[in-house]
Amino acid sequence: MGTHETAGSPPTRSTRRTFLTASAATAATVAAPLVAGPAAAEEAVAPPGPGHPVRPQPPGRELAALLREVDRDRIEATVRRLAAFGTRHTLSTQDDPVRGIGAARDWLFQQLSGYAAASGGRMTVQLQSYVQPPASRIPTATTITNVVATLRGTTAPDRVYVITGHYDSRATDVMDAVSDAPGADDDASGVAVVLELARVLASRPTEATVVLAAVAGEEQGLYGSAYLAKQLKAAGVDVQGMFSNDIVGSSTADDGTRDPRTVRLFAEGVPTAETPAEASVRQSVGGENDSPSRQLARFVSDVAENGATGMRVRVIYRRDRYLRGSDHISFLREGWPAGRFTEPNEDFAHQHQDVRVVDGVQYGDLPEFCDFDYITRVARVNGATLWSLAQAPGTPKGVTVVTTNLTNDTTLRWQRGTEPDLAGYEVVWRETTAAEWQKVLPVGDVTEVTIDLSKDNVFFGVRAVDRDGHRSPVAFPKPGS
């Protein structure tokens, strides 16, 4: 059955046959046309069944203009300025005006505050500090400070998206707070992405709220991001997506090969914060590849892999690399979808290394080994992602697939969103062996739909669409009634 709900009137219902014959007409009222693409190739691989092939979302005029404003020279200047503080080790001095993490903190606060001045009061900047008691890699009580810019949304301010880079650095010995640790790639590059996006977003109203943070304590154990995530959790914030930019500064591998047009996005399958009850449901429906983080990664590919960014997003089906972990994990632990952007291949001679020359080989994380054109393109990937998330409706909530009876069709239900420009919803589906959504059916402004396709044979999802054609990430349904 299909249910259409409008304020002040009872739901109207239609048969499955009515829905299937009307879906093509409904599509015109739900959203702008989908992007033109290699339709013939998509038709060849799309499975038979209702709907048309899923195609990417193109950058609109506003987004294209935003991406053009991302400034390579500013990004390079940020990386070089952060490296010039000598060390930004979490345990380094906090009161020296020219060296150490305190000097870097104050400079970042000054930069972000300058950008906020162009926001008409929508962007605020704070030094978010706490005292970390002695713990792993923290031998004495240490003040850890995040520099956080918050760009408040205009129509959906309670929905939040977060982007981080960590501004602390390290030498070979993780406890060495004195030696030079310029940290150009790890992670002045990620902080440069955050700062540049803060600059270009500050003057543009966003519907949802965007938090752009330079966090500390990452190298010692994700301390700053953990505190940020816990503060957001305690405040009841609805974080619908988070990205860590960590080591996004170079396109050159240790063997000299280059891949300047690819950025990796790590996205977990089984959620870090999954409860035993949630694990039981996941096992029953086969949802290992349909976590909120995987849906977020699919969204990134959908909106940020195009000519305006000049990049390919290589999604990695892992939480992070072997032996490593970045600040997105702090948000995964709180139960929020999150991923980690990082360069395609790493050169470990320029990460976590004392600055030195051995047998004619330069070691150390120095700006000379960064590719600033590459960082600029990574910033555009992040910009396309954040803007598309913040301007679109939120991910649908309360999505269920009805499992009260044995049937060969599928009924999906969800809660209607509250966005003033919400136009309706789309159902997406794919074969269970496919990694990406294959078919889409526009279903209109409804909260229930029945589709003549067996839930036993394919995976379904639901996404929201606004009047300008902006689409939300997909919500994967849970079994329900």
TrEMBL record:
Gene3D superfamilies (alphabetical): Immunoglobulins, Zn peptidases
Annotated GO biological process: polysaccharide catabolic process; proteolysis
InterPro entries: FN3_dom, FN3_sf, Ig-like_fold, M28_fam, Peptidase_M28, TAT_signal
Location of this chain's protein in the cell: Secreted
Biased composition (Pro residues): 47-59
Any one GO CC term of the record: extracellular region
Keywords, sorted A to Z: Carbohydrate metabolism, Glycosidase, Hydrolase, Metalloprotease, Polysaccharide degradation, Protease, Secreted
Source organism superkingdom: Bacteria
Record domain Fibronectin type-III: where: 392-481
Molecular-function GO terms, alphabetical: hydrolase activity, acting on glycosyl bonds; metalloexopeptidase activity
SUPFAM superfamilies from the UniProt entry: Fibronectin type III, Zn-dependent exopeptidases
Stretches for region Disordered: 40-59, 272-293
Signal peptide extent: none
Listed name of the protein: Peptidase family M28
Organism, scientific name: Micromonospora auratinigra
